[in-house]
Amino acid sequence: MKLEQLYLLSEAVKCASISGAAKKHYMAQSSISHAISSLEKELQTPLLNRNCTGVAPTATGRAILKEAQVIFKSVHNIEQIAEAQRGHVQVAFACLPCLNDWLVPTTLCRLRKTSPEVAVSTTADNSGTIIDQVTSETVPFGIVIQDADTGQHKGITYQPLFQDQYVLYVGKKSPLYGREMITYADVLKQPYIAYRDEFQKRNGGLTAMIAQQRRPNVQFRTDSLEVMKHLIASDEYVAFFPRYMSQEDAYLKSGAIQRLTVVDQPLTFTVSVVRRRQVTLSTQEEGFIENLDHVIKAAKLNSADLKEGASLSLN
Length: 315
Fold this sequence. Notes:
The chain is α/β, with parallel strands linked by helices. It contains 12 helices and 12 strands.
């Protein structure tokens, strides 16, 4: 029995098809089929039920995969120990783009003091895509907006971190600049900049929060938050941004952009760590989350601030 055989069996079950597992790992379908068939022959028992629509584990297959998860975790820990001996340990995760404004950088500064051997790698995306990455094991954990859409996913668990609230960013050329509060009807009249596929498909976050309302008047799309803020500051464009995750933004501090509260639309949300329910994170991964949680608590973020629109400050 080889570790690769167990891993490919696990991947075939996750993808519900051998062809899906082959596509995911850029392998020939025949190679995965042969590896699983060889394992079944060695163990003298079928591990998969195969039909025209895909595959599913047999009762024996499920029991073996449960034990295999312990093996996969042990292998991961061995790799982490080896990396630590070489002087570095990799922590990779996916998060919301605005977290990289100040929460993640502040956490990295703290982490360098407590765990200098840890190297961090992060990718930014919308909540729906991040959850897909977690369930497919592309990343061990992610940081997302927890909403009705994200709750549809099975086999994952959420660890709430803090609450935030979407506010509208406007520049000095916008007719809304200088106001403190607006209605959602005011938003609909403005030229809107959307982030990636926002409002085009159900991908969690803001799209899910206003799913029952008219969509903003999207006139431009981009995958760059910097481009969005530059256009808002220099023209009449508007866009929604999180209040607290973006509070250290240079455009806000300079007065080039102002944030407005939408009074008639509930735009408060919970930011949470998402992970697979049956997978234990490494000591270093748990350590990063603990350091992030410390930064959040040091910022004294609580739900009462959301009602007042108060800004946060780090101790």
